[in-house]
Amino acid sequence: MSTTNPKGAAFKIDHSYHYPEKKNILLTNIRQRPLLYFMAIPIIVYYVVFHYIPMLGIAIGFQNYLPAKGFLNSQWVGLDQFTRFFHSMNFERLVRNTFLISFYDLLFGFPVPVLFALLLNEVKNTKFKKVTQTITYMPHFISLVVICGLIYTFTKSNSPLAQLVAAFTGNKAENLLSNAKYFRTIYVVSGIWQGFGWGSIIYFAALSGVDPTLYEASFLDGAGRFQQTIHVTLPSIAPTIIIMLILRIGSLMSVGHEKIILLYSPITYKTSDVIASYVYRSGLREMNFSYGTAVGLFNSVINLVLVLGANWISRRVTETSLW
Amino acid sequence: MKRTYRIMCIVLVMMLVWNLAACSKSSKKSDNLSAGNSSDSGGTHKSNKPAEGTGKSNPRENTLPITAENIKLVLYDGFPTGARQVYNSMAETDIVKKMMEETGLQLEFVHAPEGDDGTFFNTMIASESLPDIIHDGFGSYPGGPMAAMDDGILLDATDLIDKYAYYYNGILDKGGSELRRRVMSDDGRYKLFGVTFLPEYLDGVRHGGFLTRQDLLDKVGITKLPVTIEEYEKMFDAYLGLGITPWAVALSEWQFNDYAPVASAYGVRYSGFQLKGGKVAYSRCLPEYKDFLDKMAEWVKKGYISSDAFNQRTDDAGKSFQAGTAGAVLSGSWENITRESVGKVSDPNFKIVGLALPRLKEDDVLTTFSTVLSNPEMGPRYISAGCKHPEEAVQFVDYLYKPETMKMTAWGVNTKEHTLWKDNPDGTRSWTDFMVKNPEVDYETMRQRYTFNPMQGMWDTEMEKLQYEIPQVQQPWSVWSYKTDDSDVVPKYVTRTAEEERELNTLMDEIDTYSGEMVQKFIAGQESLDRFDDFVEQLEELGIKRACEIHQQAYERYLDR
Questions:
Q1: pTM of the model as a whole
Q2: Is the CB of B141 less than 8 angstroms away from the CB of A270?
Q3: ipTM score over 0.90, yes or no
């Protein structure tokens, strides 16, 4: 209230000033861009309805579920379905086949898109690059059933491939799919052929994001092409590679049953029977939904452990991780 | 511009949301159905007590139309491939339209997709809304159809059948007590209502077996059709000389099991349970099975069977035969005509000839087949528990046994557009050229399009006999049943309880996987047959004896029926 002090006004405390409250970022975002979130609603609803709510169905893995009695009235049996699976004669074989097929797919199939992207990146002719890319990712769009039909025809005993193998091994030409030894190879190689083009897209994208000045700097330091690749390119796309690897490890125990069932037959069960195909035969056919659910849950738990483990290792070692 | 862009986005999102809403609406509808079910089936229809269906029924003759009200029945039924090519469902065919006219019912159909292996049926059963009439054996349901009735999925229609099924009971009365025994369950309920009966003239006829080419036999100079295993081997040797695969076979498919080539020569089946000395045994444990495996392994080694046999499909085997790269094949009589007509395209001399199944001595009787007898055969029909009009449903199924209806489903309906058949002055009926000599479509497909085989109450003797006139069917029929009977077959009308079924399934899972794999390895020569005894021992460890016991108990109950 002193009007004689001219400097007083500057020191007047404004009691109406409040520190900004901790704003809810999500709400402000929604308020600023409502249409974006509005567009996301159907997808969110889709995931909730078709993926999260059905998770409650896991409970039938602990029951003797009969569709007539329904979920609430079926008998609860605890871990019986799981023990039936663990004690089954083929348990080790199933787990081993599932793991090995996935592992080989990872070991041989994972580097191929990366290498392909690196190699094609070096090519100067853009038209050649584009045409090659298009051709290589066409097989991805071919239906699995058609692919298996192709494999089926190419492995018959009178096919050139079978004759080639026969020439190498010295045996009579035989149908390659009826030899248990070749099954994993056929499965993995055909999978690689089908998927490497499509899988390389993400690495191309990563490669295009590499800072060109790094190349210039390394060139000035006297690096040749190969050294540039190892010391500049690879470290730059390393985060992408690691993320893809973690995701891949997360589906290590989930060999899908469709391709296996299309290609296998009793004579190759030893190397081809995986968890999913075994459960398909015994679970759905005899309508034992509980058994199938229990085994599926087992699969998913293992996959979860693997993903968490891979992520943790990655975070510790490379400071790149999914979360 | 920005405005229209925003509007487009909103419209697209609306469409997405609307789709989801449509999904939820249909699930609400089925909720209503199931809510209706539980109140209905609580009282009258669900009866656990066995009803007295022992031939003392006296149903009145049904009149047409069945109903004057607008009643709709949903049917789950078969959809032949030929019909699939031109119709969306059987409701569009002329026959069904005529049925709807005559009965006054609205009929809607649910069909499994092409090539389905049984999963469609299983998922349908697990869903809330079932069709009213289901045409399926319920073999994949744990405990079978009787358990489905106990669980409240199916209606125990015994009372209704006694009351309304006039024509069906007529057939049963003619067949006597043996026929009644086959259609009933152990506890006196109707198990096989709505099934297709086979006419008597088909007793003992076999519908599948070996097929080879007469022109090839002539080429290699074999004049007598092979009957013994030795003669077969001579024929195969000669075919090897011609540079073709002697026998194109699909070892993993049902035909190899059903027609039982080679296995029957040793008195065993390839896979499954059979009778031996009056008792149920697992064929793969019998000592004769080893001899069968020996012979098959020998044939593989000699090259009579190629390594393709283990994973190829029957279609592929048939195609090799038709293309001329294989000398012999297993075939069903309905496929013979197609085989020859397609074969003629590549080789005009192509002429098929059926062979009697191989046996050790020329006059051996092979005992392990399920020969066709005037049985209730394919596919019984069950009324679902939620059906709102069970009396009309039962009457409709019974209508299929009316003589006029049976003639209609066998011969089709003559319309303004096509004439399928004509009545001859001597009282017989025959196909027109449109059906038999159609330039675009073969006979079998025509039959699938214009007749309705899944709904035949009993196969029409006259129409079936017409097939006799076709040599490609007549000759194989006569040789395929040469000295065969079914004395070692476990009757398929034996039923097991739900608990027995569950135990059996758990055992047979592993047994089937293990034995299927080992047997194919034995045949391929990848496993030495000296290890056969170890194989049997392992099967016993897996519990095969308990499985045989369960089958034996059920068999004895059947005999007591």
A1: 0.70
A2: no
A3: no
